[in-house]
Amino acid sequence: MAAQRSERLVNLVIALLVTDRPLTRAQLRDMIEDYRKVSEVAFQRSFERDKEEKRLIGITVRTVSLDPS
Questions:
Q1: Model-level pTM?
Q2: Mind listing the pLDDT tens digit of every residue in the chain (69 residues)?
């Protein structure tokens, strides 16, 4: 289980580093296999925990609002 979590966290960092624009939650879910495997509710919980974990270890994760226009 810990290896799977570590892999998901690394994949999240990679996904965020290889883009030059903000990504939506839906885009990140599509990009990361472990997020696709779970329900929407489980994804939301995991994603929030993963963001907090990144921040705790010193990786800056910014949340931005995307203007739909």
A1: 0.81
A2: 577 889 999 999 999 999 988 899 999 999 999 999 999 999 999 999 999 999 999 998 888 887 776
